[in-house]
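Lesson 9: reading folded outputs for more than one chain in a single document. The general rule is that every protein is listed as its sequence immediately followed by its structure tokens, and records are never interleaved. Here is the first one.
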Amino acid sequence: MSASDANIPRILVDGHGGDHAPDMVVDALASLLKKRRGQLHFGIVGISDVLLPALESRGIASQVELVPATEVVDMCEGPAMAVRRKKDSSMHVGARMVRDGHWDALVSAGNTGALMAISKLILKTLPGIDRPAIASMIPGVKGGSTLLLDCGANVDCTSNHLVQFAVMGSCYMKAAEGIESPRVGVLNIGHEDIKGTDVVKVAASELRESPLNFTGNAEGTDIFAGKFDVVVCDGFVGNVALKAMEGAAGFIRYHLKHELTRNPITRAGTLFVRSALQRFRSAIDPDEYNGAPLLGLNGIVVKSHGSAGSHAYANAIEVARREVESNLSSMIVDSMNALVTE
């Protein structure tokens, strides 16, 4: 890369992660190379004999740097096994490339547990952060989005962990969405201060005394209501909530399609509301919000959904781009330092 390209984000993608890799990964790169020509520098990490033909078939081999790796972490492989025995996997090599400063970010649709374990081992956590968290953007009913974290990385959390998640989430919404003072809430079974577990109540108390814009407890229905910009919880609750949302979205899409195609009259009626239906589908489509940042690492890693297609994967790459351009890691460190000095 020339000196004139020094400020261009360098995004490395895992060529073997996900259900439809490497084709969907390479298709995503081809799409973004057309859309953002000259704005991003791309690399793909993995087995050269597999990835090079895919790049050549789409005519982008000269535009994407190939980073060799000799192993692949399977989707069902245990994190501990992946960490110990596959040190030349695409995940391992990719994380080392980010750690050593050769690339600014790594994007993978592979095994979530392995990606988190490998990334934490190699990149370490930022100063003041005990555990990284998986964050997910949830669409709001009136536009905008709410960031939910943790969504599965940490099943058991202390109140201090929740406070750290709040700091990371607030920084992310400043960087990604341009919100000057993100509204932060703790996911609970009610808005009242007396409700919830001891961990949740202590976290809420600590957040009230913090410099963050803490606006109280959030119930499950508030995640979509636009009342909060950031909602924090432990990874067990967050993952259940996220999967329930994805299931509900699929349920709605299925029954809506079934009813609208039930007979010739309803099929004809859909012609008059086609544009509205397309907007509705986009609003609840998880692909449009794909890309879960692993916040708190000393380096940028973004997890794509394992079943993602090329469009969804391209959205995950865009998440990584925004993190790089906003210098998110430095923002988190500065915010943690401010919290300590309060």
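And here is the second record, again sequence then tokens.
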Amino acid sequence: MHRPSETTVFYRNLRWLRFVDTFGRRGAGVLDYLGGIAEMTVQAVAAAFRKPLYAQEILHQMDESGVKSLGITNVTALFTGMVLALQTAYSLAAFGGKLFIGRVVSLSLVRELGPVLTALMVGGRVGAGITAELGSMTVTEQVDALRAMAVNPVKRLVTPRLIGVFFMLPILTALADLLGILGGLLIAVTELSISASFYFNSIWNQLRISDIASGLGKSFFFAMEIALIGCYNGLNVRGGAASVGTATTQTVVAASISILVSDFFLTKLFLAL
């Protein structure tokens, strides 16, 4: 039997060691990233209960993250509800699926699609904006100037943004749920000849408080993920303007992945309660 030469074995071992080294360094980087976010989370939450409160900045961030996001979240929810109604009628037509349109649209939106799609839209818009803003302040040394003036950057910059997103995302989610249901109603009445009273009665008989609570409960967790990832990436930018763009892209990707991954575990949690 042919045995590999010592040189071949050496290079195989070398490639394996390089893989282990790369995997270890990336794993250490992920742990360092998560640890940094966890540390900043503790600092930001603790700072929320200490004076000064920066109420004016909190109101500004609520406007930036909530009011100015109404357009994109409402349009997304409206057409999602319309598509759900059409797909339900088309897929379940042979089984009398038209009768279940209200139930399918309401449950799908309230439990999953409403919170997740709203969080993804807000994560792309608000999360990227937070990172770009704080990243620009970091590379222009404005954050260092705050530290020189004995102002805590986490208290001044992170906490107001965290509070703003935390309170506005559930409101955006509730409005998105409502508009998605109305979008399903529009299709049910105009395309499927279903009366509005029957549509709303089917929702009323099927939808429970626990369904609404689970969807809105998820939005609080999603809000924290969006705000904290955006703030952390912005405050840890190193380099110039190009680094700000890279950090902004990383925020959108990281926020989207964290929302989708946490949605799975939150769904299991709320179903178990």
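What the second record shows: The CA atoms of residues 78 and 182 lie 7 Å apart.
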